[in-house]
Amino acid sequence: MRFYRFTRALLRVLYRLFFRLEAKGKENVPDFGPVVLCANHVSYFDPIAVGIPLKRKVHFMAKEELFSNTFLRKLLLLLGAFPVKRGGISKESIRHSIELLRNGNVMGIYPEGTTKGENGMGKKGAAMLALRSKAVVIPVAVVGSFKLFKKVHIQYGPPVDIREFADGGSENLEAATEKIMDVIREMVTSHKLLGKN
Question: Which CATH code of 3.20.20.150, 3.60.150.10, 3.40.1130.10, 3.40.50.720 fits the domain covering 2-193?
């Protein structure tokens, strides 16, 4: 845990230095219990950027091939990542994610499933995991390009209540996902309109 805290502190310094990372709304993330952080996907730097401002360790999925390098594998595992195979998330990955959440952990998930645009359509996995584990859903807006010395803003919003969709089923999952994505899109748009990008 000490080494994780040291690594997180070091990454905070590097992200603030190179990406001028600024995070607000951290008080919206519960100190205890299962939490799903649902963020828009801007860059491969997102998972670390969303996780390092928080006191709690954030677990996230990463492409299996990233774990082939020994150093990168150790770093990713230390930061809370676990591998998923190319071509879709397996049942094993879903089970592992639900287990993490039911054990009271935090997971960072990107409903868009892509880095091609900040206002993409949402996929249903995040809502499904949150509903199955009874996790709190925190919307996260990532605003910025992750270009050197350009400011990146992370905004953690108040919880999104999707309990009305707890009956499950494809239509309910789609509705829950759209509710989450609507909040994220609004947060991103509001941030840009305020000229904070």
Answer: 3.40.1130.10
